[in-house]
Write a structure and sequence with these properties.
Elements (H helix, E strand, L loop, with lengths): L2 H12 L1 H9 L4 H17 L7 E3 L5 H4 L5 E3 L2 E3 L2 H5 E2 L1 E4 L2 E4 L3 H9 L6 E3 L2 E2 L8 H16 L18 E4 L2 E4 L1 H11 L7 H8 L6 H7 L2 H10 L8 H11 L4 E2 L2 E2 L10 H13 L5 H10 L12 H8 L4 E4 L2 E4 L5 E2 L8 E2 L2 H11 L7
Antiparallel strand pairs: 1-7, 2-3, 4-8, 5-6, 5-7, 9-10, 11-12, 13-14, 15-16
Length: 364
């Protein structure tokens, strides 16, 4: 770790109290879910207090166009409001979700005169983290940090508005106040916000003893102050919750760019892209550890290497797991499928390609 990189990490960790204050200013997870779902439903139905399901024919004409794909230069895509919410239609004793093949079934087999549309719910964890799960994880991080440090308000964050959505030209749009609030929420996430990213990357997965012996100065002081070493049972909770958030690829109409890699999320791409760009010429020991971490079965650290690993990994997306270097935010093995037991996480291939494109491992 260069002096510049360590200074940047320290400065971001010093602002943890400001991050905490911003997280605590967010509404509760239950209030967030209910407010978003209710305002979307009011917007779609055009009613101030709609029931939880309404006849399709009772929807305003402009809302009929919301249920389906729309054309782009790359072909038909499902709009963000079908991706971020679970929509259900029922007819003839059968219910379907209005996404994917369900949209075709709805279009060709459901009698619109007898179909009921149900109040949309924020999508849960399917095909990656959804905004509701990421929001809840962020609130949990705030609760955990609140037991360690005191919040320090800085610039006043935007308030969560009473009205969130509007329909315009057949599209659901965020009102300007909610646009500002979503931008604020996104700035709190790892991979995008400097403070959250620093809190995450400061973890090395090594013992407090290793941290105390391998790290010194202001960085060690910040790690101790924030209780980021692994001798506290509660410390891994931060890593787990950040891992959950890093599965996110979008938040409402905000998509996190990931131009080339389909096995990793948008936030994972942002995290690794940011790290690679800030480490143009990696130190040999760091490059070697990343190379080892990307092998199907990373070799365990040799005796006496834990201190070297701790110093090199702090501030990088490397963490020690069962004495093996591992890429942060990924499982070492993917979940078992087709009766097979855990196999190497193919997401590593995408991350490896990002490093190789930046010139890493040329001499490995």
């Amino acid at each position: 770790m260069s002096d510049f990189e360590e200074s940047s990490l320290v400065e971001s960790l010093q602002r943890a109290e400001h991050l905490l204050a911003r997280i605590l200013s967010l509404p509760s997870a239950s209030t967030f879910d209910e407010s978003v779902e209710t305002d979307l439903w009011k917007t779609v139905t055009g009613k101030a207090d709609p029931p939880n399901k309404v006849p399709y024919t009772d929807l305003p004409d402009v809302s009929h166009t919301l249920i389906g794909t729309y054309e782009t230069e790359d072909g038909p895509v499902e709009p963000w409001w079908l991706r971020e919410f679970t929509w259900t239609a029922s007819f003839g004793g059968e219910s379907i979700e209005l996404r994917g093949d369900g949209l075709q079934t709805f279009a060709t087999k459901f009698d619109r005169e007898r179909t009921m549309i149900h109040k949309p719910e924020l999508a849960t964890v399917t095909e990656g983290t959804r905004v509701s799960a990421a929001f809840e994880a962020l609130k949990t991080i705030g609760d955990e940090l609140d037991t360690r440090i005191d919040p320090m308000p800085g610039i006043s964050p935007p308030s969560f508005p009473d009205s969130l959505f509007t329909v315009s030209e057949g599209l659901i749009e965020l009102i300007p106040e909610f646009e500002d609030w979503v931008d604020h929420f996104v700035s709190l996430l790892p991979g995008i916000g400097a403070e959250a990213t620093a809190l995450y990357l400061a973890h090395t997965g090594t013992s407090a003893e290793a941290v105390d012996s391998a790290i010194d100065g202001e960085l060690l002081e910040q790690i101790r102050r924030l209780e980021l070493s692994y001798d506290k049972n509660r410390t891994p909770e931060l890593v787990r919750r950040f891992d959950e958030i890093l599965g996110l690829s979008s938040a409402f109409n905000r998509e996190f760019p990931n131009p080339s890699y389909d096995r990793i999320s948008g936030l994972q791409y942002q995290l690794y892209r940011g790290f690679i760009e800030s480490h143009g010429s990696p130190e040999t020991v760091v490059e070697d550890l990343f190379d080892r971490a990307m092998k199907p079965t990373p070799p365990k650290l040799d005796e006496g290497e834990q201190g070297i690993f701790t110093r090199a990994a702090c501030g990088t997306p490397l963490i020690l797991y069962a004495r093996r270097p591992r890429l942060m935010s990924f499982d070492m093995y993917s979940p078992a499928t087709s009766g097979s037991s855990g196999y190497f996480d193919r997401s590593y291939n995408d991350v490896n390609a990002m490093f190789e494109a930046a010139g890493w491992f040329d001499n490995a």
